[in-house]
Each structure stands twice: as structure tokens, then as C-alpha cells.
Amino acid sequence: KAKAQKGKKITLKIAKNSIRISFDGARRLDLSKMGITTFPNCILKLDDVDELDLSRNMLKKIPSSIQKFQKLRWLDLHSNQLEELPAAIGTLQKLFYLNICNNKLTTKNLPEELNLLKNLHILNLGLNCLDSIPTSLGALKELTEIGLFDNALTSIPNSVKKLPNLKKLNAKRNPFPDSTNQEEPDDSVKRVKTLYLVQEKDLCSSCLKICQDEKDKLNKLKDVTPNPPKKPSFSLLLTPNSPAKDNQEEWRLK
């Protein structure tokens, strides 16, 4: 039992046998889910790999020698017990993807050198103990995705929110002030970001007839009533993606 608590010892042979070739030809060293408690120094002899996966282990520390992996584009350290990262991680200039989610990282133990990773596109800091985000991360101009969920954040610096290439920012389940999480006021009209239009040829004959009938009713109403009431209500109006409740069973069947 005492030996089991020390974690599995990784030998160079085990490490070599754990190298996989990804679909795009990259050499990936996969040591995930192997019960590792200390960084295996033997893998420093395999520093020419493109990807390194040490996720789902019990690592508490990553040594400065990580800087030997200068070809590294993909580094996955999620689901360990890391409390800090070495400043040397900033030397991995080719790093495209960095996942340090689900660890024990605090804001003060995030190295400032993270802002040197100029080629970084994806950064996952979720499920840690961060109470703030360094404004210096705004230097990562190539970031397209950043995960900040499940931390202790009360704000996100504008330098991060306004990164020029940022497409996805996940900051769910943080204790932001109520003013930033206010729900939108109720509206009788459902606002949607995307509206899917259906062409006539894609509708069955009965659906097309219903739509045409309702369209005719609307046109007649416009002609008869020059000044419509303040709150018009068309309870029978049905379209293929309508939230109307009436006759929904007909839509489901068709």
C-alpha cells in the first residue's frame, strides 16, 4: 500500500511505448491516467515530441526542465494537483494548446511568463482557485478560446475580454457581482440569434396551406386596420419554428 501511494514509476521504455502518432502526423507522448505523482525525468530524453499528455495523474509540480520540450505544440496537464507552474513554461514558444484545468492553481502562482506564449490559441484555466485574471494575459493576441469557469473570479479584465481573435470565453459558475449576471427582462417576443428560413418546396402540402392561410389573414388585417392595436396578438400564427402551443402535435407528426 505504501508503494501504491508513491505512484507509478515511469521508465524510459514505458515512455517510448506510450508515444502515439496523431492523425496529422504529430508525435504524442501519452502518459495520462497512469497514477504518476512526480514528473518523470526520463521523458526529458524524448523532448522532440510535439504533444505531451500528463493529464489525470497526481502531479503537484512541473519542473523548470519542461523548457527542454521546445517543439511542444500541445500540453495537457488537466486533472492533477498542481499548485503552481514554473516560469520556464513561457519558453515554449510553439505552444498552441495549454490545458491546466482542474488543478489547485491560485492567481499568485500563475507565472507572469504565460504572457510570452505568443502562439497560444487555446488556454483552459477552469476549475482552479483563481480569484483574478492577470491583465498581462491580454498579450496573448492569438487566443481564440479561454476557459475560466468554476473559479472565484469577480471580474475579467478588458484586456482579456477584448482579445482580437477571441471567439469563445467560458466563465460560467464564478461569483460575479449581480449586476453582471442580471437576467434580460421578460419579452413577449422570443429573441433568437439565428433564424432558420424554410423554402416552400421543403414544406408538405398541409403545412404550406396553413402558412399561406395565415399569411392571407395577416394581409387582410393590414388592409382593414390602418392603426393596429398596441399589443397585437396572433394566437393561431404558426411557422415551422414557432413557439406557439396550438397545434404543436401536428408539427411534430410532420
> What number is the mean pLDDT?
81
Question: What characterizes the major β-sheet?
Answer: 8 strands, mixed
Residues in helices, as a percent range = 10-25%
Radius of gyration from the alpha-carbon trace, in angstroms: 27 Å
Discrete helix count: 5
**Helix and strand succession?**
HHEEEEEEEHEHH
The number of E-state strands comes to 8
Structural class: alpha/beta
Q: Indicate the overall shape.
A: elongated
The fraction of residues assigned to DSSP E strands is: 5-15%
Poorly predicted sequence stretches spanning 5 or more consecutive residues:
179-196, 234-254
Domain Disease resistance R13L4/SHOC-2-like LRR: 66-197
Keywords: Leucine-rich repeat, Repeat
Protein name: LRC18 protein
Pfam families: LRR_14
Description:
The chain is α/β, with parallel strands linked by helices and 254 residues long. It has a domain at 19-49 and 56-71. The protein has 5 helices and 8 strands. Strands 1-2-3-4-5-6-7-8 form an 8-stranded mixed sheet. The radius of gyration is 27 Å and the shape is elongated. Keywords: Leucine-rich repeat, Repeat. Residues 66-197 form the Disease resistance R13L4/SHOC-2-like LRR domain.
